[in-house]
Specification:
Structural class: alpha+beta
Shape: elongated
Number of helices: 13
Strand order of the largest sheet: 3-4-9-6-8-7
Order of helices and strands: HHEEHEEHEEHEEHEHEEHEHHHHH
Number of strands: 12
Helix content: 40-55%
Largest sheet: 6 strands, mixed, barrel
Number of domains: 2
Distance between the termini: 25 Å
Radius of gyration: 32 Å
Strand content: 15-25%
């Protein structure tokens, strides 16, 4: 062990002859413990809130979505269909027909998106578990499942066979028939209401694929998109390469983050803001370490004169107090991370903090990324603080 490390180790564990020096060192260590634990707990709480918030959109969004690079439709013939079936990275996929439609029920109207899905859609998205009232789509029927928000605004009744929901789209080539109704309309009965989030509940209406195809008047092998559920060992690059080998440059592949860019950008910005705010708290805490090192330098001045007389240069003495500061930071940070990790695990397993006004446990998530981020931030800022404080050791 180098001499400077031995001296720093002795200074860290030995008590000073002056009580005030010991108290300053103890306070510096406690402040580092508290600041580190606070940063770790706050980042873990935000990670829990982030996962909780994304759970509402992730339950509706597929792992990947294949959309046309140009235009509104994808040609999915038998060759392409068989090609998708043999891709190992794909656990399940579902072709989708989606279009903006005009809804009218009794005297109420609303614009929404009609999403035509087949039976295989439930293998990609467990939509049947999201139905709050009624049931999921019945094959080969003119039934629809609407969002809870749409149902509330339009007073849709489930299994109301006396009043049908009218779903309309603009007719194609309407200019050739000036007296013809510019909208093509099909009637449907509501058999279920799903509930995911306020935005989605007011946006989508689900129907069978054949119903949507008849309304939109698309050929059998034309779709709006393909939603994909990947296997557990799927590699993004390999999956995209295989899909591009089937469709070429006619499609684009988007993941969940690309499907909700505004949401992910907002969450990342909030995470950065929280990290910077509590990093500032950590910086303020490090001033206690600087003060403790300055007091230690003054307290050990007689011993340093002896060490210099023995031939130890000044830069070695500066290294000694630099290492002393890093020990305070390392041990204080380690204790803080242990305490915060215990608090996080207890909240996960035996919740003791709940969302105000509810019985919902406050979501937290222990993550290696946050642990490394906190420790890395602490060591980098701590090394700067220790180097600054050890400048006091002069020739």
């Amino acid at each position: 062990m180098p001499v400077v490390l031995k001296i720093a180790w002795r200074y860290f564990f030995s008590k000073s002859g002056q009580t005030v020096i010991n108290r300053i060192n103890g306070i510096a260590l406690v402040v580092i413990v508290v600041a580190t634990a606070a940063l770790m707990i706050v980042l873990s709480a935000f990670a829990g809130l982030k996962d909780f918030g994304l759970s509402f959109s992730n339950v509706f969004d597929p792992d990947y979505r294949v959309v046309p690079a140009q235009g509104k439709t994808i040609l999915l013939d038998s060759t392409a269909l068989n090609g998708l079936k043999i891709i190992d990275e794909i656990a399940a996929f579902s072709p989708i027909l989606e279009e903006k439609v005009f809804l009218s029920f009794k005297e109420k109207n609303q614009v929404a998106y009609l999403k035509g899905v087949g039976p295989e859609y439930l293998s990609v998205i467990p939509a049947d578990s999201l139905v709050a009232v009624g049931e999921w789509l019945i094959p080969d029927s003119s039934a629809i499942v609407a969002g809870y928000g749409i149902g509330a605004e339009m007073d849709l009744g489930v299994y109301d066979y006396n009043s049908f929901l009218n779903i309309s789209i603009p007719r194609k080539n309407v200019k050739t028939h000036l007296r013809q109704n510019p909208f093509y309309t099909q009637q449907a009965v509501t058999i279920g209401l799903y509930q995911i989030s306020e935005d989605i509940d007011k946006r989508y209406v689900f129907s069978n694929l054949d119903f949507a195809r008849n309304l939109l008047q698309y050929p059998q092998d034309v779709f709006s998109s393909i939603e994909i559920k990947t296997s557990t060992k799927a590699h993004e690059k390999d999956l995209k390469n295989k899909i591009f080998s089937i469709f070429g440059d006619s499609v684009e592949i988007t993941d969940r983050a690309q499907l909700n860019p505004a949401l992910y950008k907002m969450l990342n910005t909030e995470h950065l803001a929280i990290y910077l705010i509590f990093t500032l708290v950590l910086i303020i805490a490090l001033f206690n370490v600087v003060g403790a090192l300055v007091m230690m330098i003054l307290d050990k001045k007689p011993q340093m004169n002896i060490l210099k007389a023995m031939g130890i240069p000044s830069f070695k003495l500066r290294q000694t107090f630099f290492l002393l500061g890093m020990m305070i930071i390392f041990f204080g940070g380690s204790i803080g991370l242990v305490i915060s990790s215990l608090v996080i695990f207890i909240q996960q397993w035996i919740p003791f903090i709940y969302v105000p006004g509810t019985t919902l446990p406050y979501p937290v998530k222990w993550d290696w990324t946050n642990l490394l981020l906190v420790m890395g931030t602490l060591m980098i800022l701590g090394s700067v603080a220790s180097a600054w404080a050890s400048r006091g050791v002069k020739q």
